[in-house]
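hey so u asked for the seq, here:
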Amino acid sequence: MKKGIIFDLDGTLWDSIPSVTHGWNIALRRHPELNCILTEKDMRGFMGKTNPVIAQLMLPSLTPEAAYDIVKECNIEELAYLKDHPGTLYPGVPELLDRLSQEYPLYIVSNCDDGYVQTFLDVCGFWKYFEDIEMSGRTRKEKGENIRLIIERNHLDKAVYIGDTQGDLDASHVAGIPFIYAAYGFGTVDEDVPVIQTPSELTAHLSGFLD
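ran it, structure tokens below
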């Protein structure tokens, strides 16, 4: 029986809000007519959402197509900036991944643009820990569907999703797998689910889901 652990990225493994905000503002300053410069609070509210949703929230006066084109520019600048200014890993994440990867295959599913998870793995040196990744920017699918893709193509019999927002919890329901809430991240959830206050607490919760 193959068992796997699937992680969300932002708010679960690292906090990249300062760097991502800076990268997006580089692109937005090329469009002064939009009068749109983001704060870190703005970016925190976008985390966990797909780019088409972010585009409409950020630039509601534009057509969906025009707003999405601006977001694509932001994504390009974001990735370039992150290569030299990576996000901050939550305490204990490297040790956790090293320990868990010796027992379980690990995966990442995020609502980010294609290239973002790859950049995370590059700058942190974490490719060795993860067997597969998926993101909405590559598949144009919702997170729950992408979790199912990971489960299906890796032939997982049991899996658990670790995330920090209600959207992550909803996605785990769509995929039909249990969820563990990373309360140290960006969001909240409206169900009574297992909670971790630090990444290092995750190990104690896994046995009940993956036995």
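The radius of gyration is 17 Å. The longest strand covers residues 130-135.
lmk if thats what u needed
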